[in-house]
Structure prediction request, 250 residues.
Amino acid sequence: MSKEKSNISAEELEKDFSDVDLALDDSPELYEQEEQSRASKLRENFQEEFKAVFEDKPEAPSKEKKQVAILDSEGFAAGVFDWIRCVILAVAVVVVCLTFVFRLVEVDGASMNDTLASHDKVIVTNLFYQPHNNDIVVISHGSHYAKPIIKRVIAIEGQTVKLDYENDKIYVDGVEMSEPYIKGSTFSGNYGDNQVPEVIPEGKIFVMGDNRQVSLDSRSTEIGLIDVDSVIGKAQFVVFPFDHLGYVYN
Prediction:
């Protein structure tokens, strides 16, 4: 007998079973012993079929369902692994960028006013960088100063430099520099004791701060000429505080 639902209701089957019971109980003389046995067997078969059709039995999980559950578990593990891999990759990219492409440097002091103020946070690029005139550069600390400094490149190797103290001017390769970015006079106050060579030696640069009256730079023996290898990179943008946000070369 099929497991599909029968069109015969449970009440009708129960009635049939009752009729069979009555027939067996009230008229045993109508049946031979063998027929009574067959009728009893028939009733038992009906009852078994009734239970099979109308009683709900929990089905054991199929192989397909078990396979789906296993696949779901494996998919979750794979998703977690992909997420961890993405995080590691992102951290590696940031580390590489901070090491070889750019850095975030905080300005300390007033020597670059008004171009840069103390505590400004500046993005510095350093990939394949070589200093050029007018670049604002970050210089690693040396034996004469404890931490990195930030200054403007005035002259590079092979260029001639003349500091005209009397007329408050600077000449590079015989041409007077135009410096609209400087604050105050270049040589007023304590402008240093360093004897700057007429020609900047190979591998060296001459740097000064934009706030010349307070800047400790290549004019002083405490700083002197800077090794190109000591240059960390070129300042590009102020990113904080937001009221100073922008490109540093205007």
In short: The two ends are 93 Å apart (CA to CA). The first helix runs from residue 10 to 26.
